[in-house]
Structure formats: structure tokens, C-alpha cells
Amino acid sequence: MITASLRLPESLIKEADKRVQELQIPRAEYIRRAIVALNTQVRAEQRRQRMMEVSRRVRGESMHVNAEFDAIEDAPDA
Which of 1, 14, 27, 41 has the most CB atoms around its CB within 10 Å? Predict the structure, then answer.
């Protein structure tokens, strides 16, 4: 395990210490959980952004395919 040293505003530490007391966990555990939560949130947002981008790319192709189907359906000998 790696040790990290942080410089944080006093107000942030005071608030964290209140939560630590409420949860009855060590400060280091509280900070670990906060990092895990933010990492999870960032990964979810990145996944959402990738899905939106792929959806935009697929949408254009889908519209093209739909237009081809419409043309076939409207063809007199179809």
C-alpha cells in the first residue's frame, strides 16, 4: 500500500472529521471511500459520454438504412 500526504483546507478536514465521528471509521478509511466514490462517478460519466458518442455515430447510419428500407417499401415491384 502507498502512503499519500495531502494538503487540504482546514474547513474540509473539519467537515470530514465530523463525518468520520458519525460513521465511526478512521479518517483514512473515509478518504479512501471518497476517492473510490469519485473514481466510480468519473468512470460512469466517461462511460455515459462514450455511449452518447457511439449512439450519435450509429444514429446517422441508422437513418441511412431506414431511408434505404423506405425506398424499397415504396418501390412498385417490392
Answer: 27
